[in-house]
Design brief:
Elements (H helix, E strand, L loop, with lengths): L12 H9 L2 H11 L5 H8 L3 H13 L3 E7 L4 E6 L1 H4 L2 H13 L48 H13 L8
Antiparallel strand pairs: 1-2
């Protein structure tokens, strides 16, 4: 599949992440994998996805090293698709997306919720700064800026953005 990333976005981590997981079926397959599904027929039955689409998505997930294809039966040869460490590291992203969706629904409209496995109590996921424990949802308190590997264009983008925000400098 050809890359949908614009040339100027190749250094942006959001663009490169979206290239790996931004497709609708991909997110649903990963969600099923987090729920314990590993076999082609399980994904197909649960998602009601066509064979060709599922084959293509699984092939991409394996190529992106998010899933590993493992032989589980010799005769006939049958494979399962198991999350890799890289794939497992996406779980907080999937949890955050589901939480965002639920946040915009009335409690009685939620078809899936995240609960504490031991207590069964619903939990409310939040993304926090590991150092301070502060929630990252405040776009005035936490801003993106150019990182050490940023190109001139990326540095220029954030210099311009900081210049548009009263009281902010690139070093804040």
């Amino acid at each position: 599949m050809p890359s949908r990333i614009r040339l100027e976005d190749r250094e942006c981590p959001l663009s490169t992440t979206a290239q790996h997981v931004g497709e609708w079926w991909t997110l649903l397959i990963l969600h099923d994998a987090f729920d314990g599904y590993t076999r082609f027929d399980q994904f197909q039955q649960n998602l009601n996805i066509s064979t060709s689409m599922l084959t293509a998505r699984l092939k991409t997930l394996v190529a992106d090293e998010l899933l590993e294809r493992r032989l589980y039966q010799d005769k006939p040869a049958r494979y399962e698709y198991v999350l890799t460490e890289r794939g497992r590291s996406l779980r907080p992203v999937i949890v955050a997306l589901a939480a965002w969706g639920n946040r915009h629904l009335a409690p009685q409209e939620r078809s899936m919720i995240l609960v504490d496995a031991a207590s069964g109590e619903e939990v409310e996921p939040v993304l926090i700064d590991a150092r301070t424990g502060r929630p990252l949802d405040d776009s005035k308190a936490f801003v993106f800026t150019a990182g050490p590997a940023a190109s001139t264009a990326m540095r220029s983008r954030y210099t311009e953005l900081r210049g548009q925000q009263p009281g902010r400098t690139d070093t804040q």
